[in-house]
Specification:
The complex is a heterodimer of chains A (327) and B (330).
Chain A: H1 3-31, H2 36-40, H3 47-56, H4 63-75, H5 89-124, H6 129-143, H7 146-160, H8 178-216, H9 219-226, H10 231-268, H11 274-283, H12 287-315, H13 317-320
Helix pairs in contact in A: 1-12, 5-6, 5-8, 5-10, 6-8, 7-8, 8-10, 9-10, 10-11, 10-12, 11-12
Chain B: E1 4-15, E2 18-30, E3 35-39, H1 46-53, E4 61-70, E5 73-74, H2 80-86, E6 92-95, H3 109-120, H4 125-138, H5 155-166, E7 173-177, H6 185-202, E8 205-210, H7 213-219, E9 222-227, E10 230-236, H8 237-242, H9 247-254, H10 294-298, E11 304-305, E12 312-313, H11 318-321
Parallel strand pairs in B: 3-8, 3-9, 6-7, 7-8
Antiparallel strand pairs in B: 1-2, 1-4, 4-5, 9-10, 10-12, 11-12
Helix pairs in contact in B: 3-4, 3-5, 4-5, 5-6
Classes of the chains: A mainly alpha (327), B alpha/beta (330).
Chain lengths: 327, 330
């Protein structure tokens, strides 16, 4: 099996998963209590007015027709109209998506880089105080509930010591000048992104440390040492490089968790993003909005899983040749 | 002066159960162009000795005494950095045991050879690649396989690639640690032939570590028999093989079936190698030795030369064993 077959197979799997999720997404919102009527239809409306509204939102169609419309319009990224704001869900999401991406990418990149670096450092200094400290700190931050830690940070640095804003993605009104506006954004970003990094780096560092220690015990490390390679070369080019496949896979596998974690972070820090939009939509029983946000998150999860498979194939030559016949 | 001189070398591992006396007062020499075979059971300290010479000890391994000299240069007192640059691979290289994992699975085989060359020599990458291709060719691997990954090689090819890698910097001494273990018999023969050819062609000095006496008989000039961290017998390969003097060597030699001779059951040396945390008093072999008496239990035998030719043995019962009787007949 060549890489092309592997690729095609992965794409087909991803599409199947997408279809199942969409169907599930459709069913869940129709099984939940309440519908648009409760939200937007005033009990004092006449029956004719009610019918007209139901028709406007397509709620008078039989479920199968609704399902068909739902699937075809999702594929066109037409996510329907929000019950609450009467605006297209797609444009509401498009407005918030950049904010989520900024928060997410910042937190994620920093977690990854800091976590890996700390893990390599701990593996390198096995048996020292530094390693014990990293292991302890990693376990501690891993065990602390994210929302609790974030609320503490908010209280400490937003209320008692007012060095960070307590909500929002930027000041209102924003400061003049592109650079000041950028700084204002960064200022708002520090607490939500930073809290995620602190919570996330620990498990990352522990994982890196463990796989590195395992790699450092392999025969090929002795070979590398016997070859007279410098320490750094052995550490990075031989040990870290050989554990890169599982680490990179873990990076991509952890993406979905971080996407969903964004819901909590965005809610706590009142971040104008997709996660908080989903939260609000669910609370208001704004089904098109919630469905749209779910759809987006599901897409993110599927794409990151797909990328995990691809990247794994690229970094591990044993997989690249083709799973199966040569092993 | 011998190329490599090891004198009274002591290397212990510190463990929770105490010190493991893996290498205990070991002395030997390797002349330029000669091959010394080191034979013994698993766990007798032969591999530990190899990694002591290259200073590749794990963190709990400690050199407690003795000397390792190469052309008179004291290898144990050199700084780690100087040793890495001047000795490892450029002067002493190693063929590792088990082709399985000695090559890094995520790097191309050719590049792993190139890396060794570029670390020690000031040549362009292109020259290094050229040399790596020639080396692969020399051990019978098509240079077209330069860009393959280790998992694309068979076990024998991996082992030959490792041999090519060991020769990359024209070392003065190659240490081969169980180079044919984990290979099937046909491939073993191929690998041994490759080693022999190269030895003749390049006048390599070698230290070959194995539990298989036939490998030593085929490739080595001298042999040292190790038991429980000590060398118990030392001499030319033919002499030790034909006329072993230590009861343990006699056992090893007769444990090896001779297909030309009349059919007889394969024999083994009864018992197990001792625990090296608290090895037996006196002669370490006495609990398994049919000749052992009270002196053997209390007094450690010194190594004595017997009959010239540097054939030496550490046994209180040399007069009996030299008599040529088969002591392992029950």
């Amino acid at each position: 099996m060549g890489f092309r077959t592997y690729l095609i197979r992965r794409i087909v799997y991803a599409l199947i998963v997408l279809f199942v999720i969409l169907t599930f997404n459709f069913a869940v919102f129709r099984l939940m209590p309440g519908d648009a009527e409760k939200m937007i239809i005033d009990p004092r409306f006449s029956p004719e007015a009610r019918m007209a509204l139901r028709k406007q939102f397509g709620l008078d169609d039989p479920p199968l027709v609704q399902y068909w419309k739902y699937i075809t319009s999702l594929l066109r990224f037409d996510l329907g109209q929000s019950f609450a704001t009467r605006r297209p869900v797609a444009s509401e999401l498009a407005e918030r998506l950049p904010n989520t991406i900024v928060l997410f990418l910042t937190a994620f990149t920093l977690t990854m880089v800091i976590g890996t670096a700390v893990g390599v450092y701990a593996a390198q200094h096995r048996g020292t105080f530094a390693e014990t400290f990293v292991t302890g700190a990693g376990l501690f931050t891993y065990a602390v509930p994210t929302f609790f830690f974030q609320l503490l940070l908010l209280m400490l640095f937003g209320y008692y010591i007012r060095i960070f804003p307590i909500h929002g993605t930027m000041s209102a009104p924003p400061p003049d000048g592109a650079f000041l506006r950028f700084l204002d954004r960064v200022h708002h970003l520090i607490l939500p992104a930073g809290s995620n990094v602190i919570i996330g780096f620990g498990s990352w560092a522990l994982y890196t440390r463990n796989t590195m220690l395992e790699a450092l015990g392999q025969d090929y490390i002795i070979t590398a040492r016997a070859k007279g390679l410098p320490r750094r070369e052995i550490l990075y080019h031989h040990a870290l490089r050989s554990v890169l496949p599982p680490i990179v896979t873990l990076i991509f596998l952890s993406l979905p968790g971080m996407v969903t974690g964004a819901v909590i972070t965005e809610t706590i820090f009142s971040w104008h993003g997709v996660g908080r939009y989903l939260m609000d939509a669910v609370l208001q029983q704004d089904y098109p909005a919630a469905q749209g946000a779910f759809y987006l998150i599901a897409l993110a999860v599927i794409i990151s899983n797909f990328m995990a498979d691809l990247v794994y194939g690229l970094v591990d030559p044993r997989i690249r040749v083709g799973a199966g016949e040569r092993r | 002066m011998a190329l490599l001189e090891v004198k009274d070398l002591k290397m212990y591992y510190r463990t929770l159960r105490g010190q493991v006396k893996a290498v205990d007062c070991v002395s030997f020499e390797i002349e330029k162009g000669k091959a010394l075979g080191i034979a013994g059971e698993s766990g007798c300290g032969k591999s530990s000795m190899a990694i002591t010479v290259l200073r590749l000890l794990p963190s709990n391994g400690h050199i407690l005494g003795g000397e390792v000299r190469m052309d008179g240069l004291d290898l144990l007192s050199m700084s780690e950095e100087a040793f890495r640059k001047a000795i490892r691979w450029s002067r002493i290289s190693m063929i590792f045991q088990g082709a399985m994992n000695a090559l890094n699975p995520v790097h191309r085989v050719g590049n792993q050879i190139v890396e060794a060359i570029l670390t020690h020599e000031d040549v362009s990458r292109q020259e290094a690649v050229e040399r790596a291709r020639r080396l692969l060719d020399m051990v019978g691997i098509s240079p077209r396989r330069f860009n393959d990954y280790p998992h694309e090689f068979s076990g024998g090819m991996k082992q030959r690639a490792i041999i090519a890698m060991a020769l990359a910097c024209n070392p003065d001494l190659v240490i081969a640690d169980e180079p044919t273990t984990a290979l099937d018999v046909m491939v073993q023969a191929q690998v041994l032939r490759a080693i022999q050819d190269l030895r003749e062609k390049l006048a390599l000095s070698m230290m070959l570590i194995t539990h298989d006496l036939s490998v030593i008989a085929q490739t080595c000039d001298d042999v040292a028999i190790m038991y429980a961290g000590k060398i118990v017998e030392y001499g030319t390969a033919t002499e030790v093989y034909k006329k072993p003097l230590h009861p343990y060597s006699m056992g090893l030699v007769s444990a090896f079936p001779n297909i030309a001779a009349e059919k007889s059951p394969v024999r083994s040396v009864p018992g197990f190698p001792p625990n090296l945390v608290s090895p037996p008093e006196g002669c370490r072999f006495h609990p398994r030795c049919p000749l052992a008496d009270d002196k053997c239990k209390t007094e450690e035998p010194a190594s004595v030369e017997v009959g010239g030719n540097h054939h030496s043995v550490a046994c209180h019962k040399v007069d009996v064993t030299a008599g040529g009787i088969d002591i392992w007949v029950q």
